[in-house]
Write a structure and sequence with these properties.
By secondary structure, the protein is α+β, with helices and mostly antiparallel strands. It has 21 helices and 22 strands. Strands 1, 2, 6, 7, 8, 9 and 20 form a seven-stranded mixed sheet that branches. The mean pLDDT is about 95.
């Protein structure tokens, strides 16, 4: 072992695993450094992947050739497609995972990835020469050389845990914090701050009265995260359970607020707005008598349950007293109480869109170190950082994605241009072009590009080509096959739609809001026969027939909206193509507002489009810049 690598990734959480896997698969000799090889890709908080907008990110990771979707499907114990009562742009996959199997599946992936090495240790400093990272130094006193380094430290940088008045140094329960990196980077001129997140108690299933709760089963259909037909859910599928807090719960919790780190000044940093602790909920929404809780299983062979919605840093006695007032939890037994954790992060406006830092060449940040929250946001950043770390060491065009290409592109653009003042969480509302960024078409948006740069393999690319061919053929069929008057009139009247006055194409019928392809096929034999033919081809690496049918229906129903959003995205792209010279002296342009001069000088956007998305830069400021750029 000579400890010389192309890329070193520090931290084996969700960002680190994707970064290391991507860099290695593209050909870089890669080292992944972790404190504990048994905790690789640990699900530190809830045992689930996906959700609103987050599920789209995981499908994008899979489309690009990343691993999170594959690992999630293979460890899934419940899958649901959220928001199916809404438009297709809002559909979001979510999966409960067996926490232990999730780790095991990731270890399998990493262990069978060529060019990838793992080292168990703690990185205490970076080796930097002439503003370029050259390697790392570890707690064991080893110096490791690298052409690029990706920091994915999660909540471990100066991590401090809180449970009531008790404070314990650490990055996660029973795991040490990491020291030295923040201090070194601050000395180099980086801006750092503190954030807070938390987690609920874990409880024993044998003490839960499930018969007093509402059962929530998953979907039993073909949907999954990975586009690959070789990946499937194999584990036993398990239900979640719904219950609620009540006024007695809130009274028990209020009694402990004086000892709450969030309200007695012990915690100063900002927590996630969209995943607040239970004590924050009862204070912020004091008029609300109940809050919904989800009890989520941790695994098929475990009695451990996660109480989603009851995150807390109150003293453990107060948490227990509150839980015992909840229907079904009267006899609850804890495995461990909830706790909060404070940790260091770095202002993400100090990054390029490649996630390389502006101050130090070949140094990349990904995950919670950039002020984000969530496994999915971290994994998406990790993949982008890993790809670009490889490109920086082997040559090639930097890999970035626009806001019209992916939710990952929206995420990174928001971080780099806007920064964060609270833990960043992705929502569909953050994307201007969410009809273009649907969960069903991530492969069509991203796989070809990933294949061309060497990350997605030929099987994945061939699967995409076959899917697109099958979709084009099916759409052509529906646009050229006539449904005659009287052929389906009775059915149309049954579903509340008007009968046909004359024959029309199948595609025109599909445009009706009451009509969907599968239901229509049950009363239209020629369509049913066509669908059966598509599904019969679903073997080997050939596309899933049901996925083809769903994709075609969405393309037909939303064609007008898709066309309009593509036109809007083209306008944005034109502004992104107007480059701003490196070193442009904004402070000398008096016609810019003071706020614009300050923010443009700090963030250093590379294009007019990026400048336009910086908060505080007005349309008038953009007009001034357009004139100065000769437009």
């Amino acid at each position: 072992m000579d400890f010389r690598y192309d890329v070193i990734v520090v931290g084996a959480g969700h960002a680190g695993c994707e970064a290391a896997s991507a860099a290695a698969r593209m050909g870089s000799k890669t080292l992944l450094i972790t404190m504990d090889m048994n905790k690789i890709a640990q699900m530190s908080c809830n045992p689930a992947v996906g959700g609103i907008a987050k599920g789209q990110i995981v499908r994008e990771i899979d489309a690009l050739g990343g691993q999170m979707g594959i690992v999630t499907d293979r460890s899934a114990i419940q899958f649901r497609m959220l928001n199916q009562s809404k438009g297709a742009a809002m559909w979001s996959p979510r999966s409960q995972s067996d926490r232990k199997r999730f780790i095991e599946e990731w270890i399998k992936v990493l262990s069978h990835t060529d060019n990838l090495h793992i080292w168990q240790d703690i990185v205490v400093s970076l080796i930097i020469n002439d503003n370029k990272v050259c390697g790392v130094k570890t707690m064991l006193g080893i110096e490791m050389q690298a052409q690029a380094v990706v920091l994915t430290n999660g909540t471990f940088l100066n991590g401090l845990m809180h449970c009531g008045k008790t404070q314990v140094k650490g990055g996660r329960i029973s795991e040490p914090a990491s020291y030295g990196l923040t201090e070194q980077l601050v000395e180099l001129g980086f801006k750092a701050d503190r954030m807070k997140t938390g987690t609920p108690a874990r409880i024993d299933a044998r003490s839960i009265h499930f018969d007093e709760m509402t059962r929530q089963d998953g979907d039993n259909d073909w949907h999954q995260f990975s586009y690959l037909n070789t990946v499937h859910r194999a584990l036993k599928q398990m239900p979640c359970w719904i219950t609620y807090t009540n006024p007695q719960t809130h009274e028990a919790l209020r009694a402990g607020l004086k000892d709450s780190p969030l309200f007695n000044g012990q915690i100063q940093s900002i927590g996630p707005r969209y995943c607040p602790s239970i004590e924050t909920k009862i204070v912020t929404f004091a008029d609300k008598e109940a809050h919904q809780l989800f009890l989520e299983p941790e695994g098929v062979d475990s009695n451990e349950y996660y109480v989603n919605g009851f995150s807390s840093s109150l003293p453990w006695q107060v948490q227990l007293a509150g839980l015992k007032t909840i229907k079904g939890l009267e006899d609850v037994v804890l495995y461990r109480p909830g706790y909060a954790i404070e940790y260091d992060f770095f202002d993400p406006t100090q990054l390029h869109h490649t996630l390389e830092t502006k101050q130090i060449k070949n140094l990349f940040f990904a995950g919670q170190i950039n002020g984000t929250t969530g496994y999915e946001e971290a994994a998406g950043q990790g993949l982008v950082a890993g790809v670009n770390a490889h490109i920086n060491t082997h040559g090639g065009t930097p890999f970035t994605m626009g806001r019209d290409e992916s939710y990952i592109g929206v995420l990174i653009d928001d971080l780099v241009n806007k920064g964060v003042d609270e833990p960043y969480r992705m929502f569909t509302s953050r994307a201007e072009y969410r009809i273009l960024l649907r969960q069903d078409n991530a492969d069509e948006r991203l796989t070809r590009r990933s294949y061309e740069m060497g990350l997605a393999d030929s099987d994945r690319y061939n699967l995409l080509c076959q899917k697109q061919t099958a979709c084009a053929d099916f759409i052509d069929y529906m646009q050229n096959t006539i449904v005659h008057k009287g052929e389906v009139d009775g059915w149309l009247e049954q579903i509340g739609s008007t009968a046909l006055h004359e024959g029309c194409k199948i595609s025109e019928l599909i445009l009706r809001p009451q009509v969907n392809i599968k239901a229509l096929a049950e009363v239209l034999p020629v369509l049913k026969e066509k669908i059966a033919h598509i599904s019969d081809a679903s073997n080997g690496i050939e596309p899933n027939g049901e996925e083809v049918v769903e994709s075609c229906e969405i393309q037909i129903k939303y064609a007008g909206y898709i066309k309009r959003e593509k036109m809007e995205a083209a306008k944005l792209q034109r502004l992104d193509q107007i480059r701003i010279p490196d070193g442009f002296r904004y402070e000398q342009v008096q016609s810019l507002s003071t706020e614009a001069r300050q923010k443009l000088s700090r963030i250093r956007p590379k294009s007019i489009g990026e400048a336009q998305r910086i908060p505080g830069v007005s349309p008038n400021d953009i007009s001034v810049l357009l004139v100065l750029m000769g437009r």
